[in-house]
Design a protein that fits this description.
Blueprint lengths: L6 H8 L34 E4 L5 H6 L13 H10 L4 E8 L2 E12 L13 E9 L8 H15 L6 E2 L6
Parallel strand pairs: 4-5
Antiparallel strand pairs: 1-2, 2-3, 3-4
Length: 171
């Protein structure tokens, strides 16, 4: 709550995401974060890149680990690659690289009929972000933002106009 206003109501009133803000008297929500914001070192290349998972880099991908407190929210890369292996027509797994370093993993899906849309007549198939993991020591440098943008670019390249994000429920 922010000064007695539930987060959802504050977001509805303002049209902004309200996590990490401090309330002011009277219910006004200032748009600044509380506490310090950790910024990582900048990327080492002008632009990171996505690489297909191959025999040459699959172990680098499987060795990627998120921060310990994030593990309950993110499936291991090896599990994602196993799912990609059994769903090659749906999964688009990629290694996020900066120079010669593997810094993260992203997996997208394209043109997937969603069970959530089962009761919606003529619901179009969805495309979007399935998995995203940035290595613990590489977070805060823009790699996640890059990966999400790259997935959206691929959706547009394939003729899509909407990106759906899936997530694992949790706190």
């Amino acid at each position: 709550m922010w000064d007695g206003v539930p987060r959802a109501e504050a977001e509805r009133r303002t049209g902004r995401w309200c996590a990490g803000v401090l309330p002011r008297a009277g219910g006004e929500i200032p748009w600044r974060r509380h506490g310090p914001v950790r910024l990582g070192s900048p990327m080492t290349t002008a632009r990171p890149r996505l690489e297909m998972i191959t025999a040459d880099n699959v172990l680098d991908a499987c060795r990627l680990e998120v921060a310990p407190e994030q593990r309950r929210f993110v499936s291991p890369v090896a599990q994602s690659l196993a799912e990609a292996y059994v769903h090659p027509d749906l999964a688009w797994p990629r290694l996020i690289c900066d120079g010669d370093r593997a810094v993260g993993f992203v997996m997208a899906y394209f043109d997937l009929p969603f069970d959530f849309d089962a009761g919606v007549p003529d619901a179009p198939p969805r495309s979007g972000l399935w998995r995203l993991a940035v290595a613990a020591g590489e977070q805060g440098r823009g790699y996640g933002r890059f990966a999400v943008g790259a997935v959206n670019e691929e959706i547009r390249r394939r003729g899509g106009t909407v990106s759906t994000v899936t997530w694992k429920p949790g706190e």
